[in-house]
TrEMBL record:
Domain of life: Bacteria
Designated name of the protein: Cof subfamily protein (Haloacid dehalogenase superfamily)/HAD superfamily hydrolase (TIGR01484 family)
Gene3D superfamilies per the UniProt record, alphabetical: 3.30.1240.10, HAD superfamily/HAD-like
GO molecular function ontology, one term from the record: magnesium ion binding
One GO CC term on file: cytosol
Amino acid sequence: MGKIIFIDVDGTLLDYENKLPASADLAIKKARENGHRVYICTGRSKAEVYDYIWDIGLDGMIGGNGSYVEDHDHVVMHQLIIKEQCQHIVDWLKARHLEFYLESNNGLFASENFEEKGNPVIKLYAQRKGKDDADHATVRTIFPEMIFGGELYRDDVNKVSFILNSYQDHLDSIEEFPDLKPGTWGGKGEIALFGDLGVKDITKAHAIDELLKYLGAKKEDTLAFGDAKVDIPMLEYCEIGVAMGSGGDEIKAMADYVTDDVDKDGLYKAFIHFGLIEE
C-alpha cells in the first residue's frame, strides 16, 4: 500500500468559487495511479459532495468534520445528532429567530427564512474569501441542492449551521448544548458569520484514526492537506501536515509544509514536492 492522503475540500481541493482546479484533479488521478489512496476530509456532509468531486476518483470520504467515515461505499463510522437533540436545536434557534440549515447525508434542510437572511451573509462570506463574483453569491449558488420546506425534526443530522446575529449567539449555544460540539465559521471570533453544532468529541483526527484501524494502515504513511483551523487536528495527527498558501495564519504556522494557494496549483505542487507524483 502507498501513502494515504487526506484532503480538505473548501479552500484546499476546491477554490473559493467551488471550482476544481485542473491541476488538483490531475494530481489526485496521478497519485491513485501510483498506488496511493486519496480521501476527502471535510466539514461537508455527503449530500454536499457533488458528482464532479466524486468523478475525480476518490477512495472515500470523511464528512461532518469527522462524524462520518466511508471507504469505497462502505460506512466505517457514522455518529449522528439524535432526534431529541435535533428537536432541541431547532426549537432553540427558532425561539431566538436564528435561521439555520441541517446538514445530513440525505440533503441540506433549510429553515423557513434561511434564504432571505442568508443571501447577504453568503455574499459577505464570498467577499472575505476574495471571490471574483462575490456580489453575485447567493444561498442557491453556494448550496445548489439545498432543500426548502423539508422536515426539520430529523434523526439523520450530522451537523447544524446557523446565522449568527451576534457572537453572543455562539457563546449562548455553548451553555445551551453541553452535549454537543459548538463552533463557528466564516471568520474568527467576533467576526464569525455562522455558528454550528455537531456531535460531541468528534474531530477529523479521530475519524482518520478510525479509518486507519479499518484499513489496517499506519499513521506513518499519512499526509493531510488543509487551510483552516478545523483542519489543524488532522494535520497534527498525520505524519505530514500541509497547509495551503491561501489558508489561515494559524494552520500555516503549525504545518510541516506550506504549499501555494489553492488556485495557484498548490495541491499539485505539494504532491510533486513529497514524491506522490512526478511532474
